[in-house]
Amino acid sequence: MGANMGKNSSLLDALPSTQGTLHVVMLGLDSAGKTTALYRLKFDQYLNTVPTIGFNCEKVKGTTGRAKGVSFLVWDVGGQEKLRPLWRSYTRCTDGIVFVLDSVDVERLEEAKMELARTAKAPDNAGVPVLVLANKQDLPGAREPREIEKLLGLHELAASTSWHVQPACAITGEGLHEGMEALYEMILKRRKLAKQAKTRKR
Ligand code: G3D
Ligand code: MG
After folding, report:
1. Strands 130-135 and 71-76
2. What confidence score (pLDDT) does residue 19 get?
3. Spatial contact of 24 and 75, defined as CB atoms under 8 Å apart
4. Atom 18 of ligand 1 has which residue's CA nearest to it?
5. Whether 52 contacts 84, CB under 8 Å
């Protein structure tokens, strides 16, 4: 954790300009693989990094499909409840949520489900697309996307919340960029719908 964490303002001042960058928050239970996924996404490209101040934050570029060249500012906020009021002020207008799941850890699936529901149902996050990274697919016993869909209760989320389950292995990086592409597609779809709704109102 950064030792120089002062007031909110100094945190915000430390952030890079994010014009045209999509804001993505990475969530999930401890040891699901959030940090591994973030640095694996980052590792294949060489972009400026942001110093870690109680959490990790990296600018990552999409490499596949329409997400190619798109900049994402990805926040790996960890499980540090204490810091949430602080980062919430910055992540309020998040474009997407990446929920990282340990696909083997069946024992904590219920806990993961609750955490995801809490996040998706927060008023700040209404309609924000959710990418579920079904991580650790390299391990024996890893659950398949279809099963995870059911176990996480994704169908119970609000109809306005679009979601996608992407099997992944954060260690090799398999599935990570495909996941970001899927998230980007959902973000575009949401924007298009918002724009149409606005036009109709006129
Ligand atoms: P977190 O940031 O969500 O808390 P980490 O999780 O990224 O710190 O990862 C927790 C542990 O899971 C790490 O192992 C990491 O290597 C492992 N891990 C992450 N992704 C994968 C994956 O796709 N496959 C496998 N097999 N392991 C993964 P350690 O041993 O360091 O605790
Ligand atoms: Mg971590």
Report:
1. unpaired
2. 64
3. yes
4. 33
5. no
Query: Domains in the chain and their CATH numbers?
Result: 20-201 (3.40.50.300)
Name all residues whose Cβ lies below 6 A of ligand 1: 28, 30-36, 100, 135-136, 138-139, 169-171
pLDDT in tens, 89-143: 656 679 999 999 999 999 999 999 998 998 888 888 899 999 999 999 999 999 9
d(CA 137, CA 128): 25
Asked if 97 and 24 touch (Cβ cutoff 8 Å), the reply is: yes
Q: Which of 36, 39, 55 to mutate to test the pocket of ligand 1 (most atoms within 8 A of CB)?
A: 36
For residue 174, how far is its CA from the centre of ligand 2 (angstroms)? 19
The DSSP code for 53 is S
Q: How far apart (Å, rounded) are the C-alpha atoms in residues 133 and 145?
A: 9
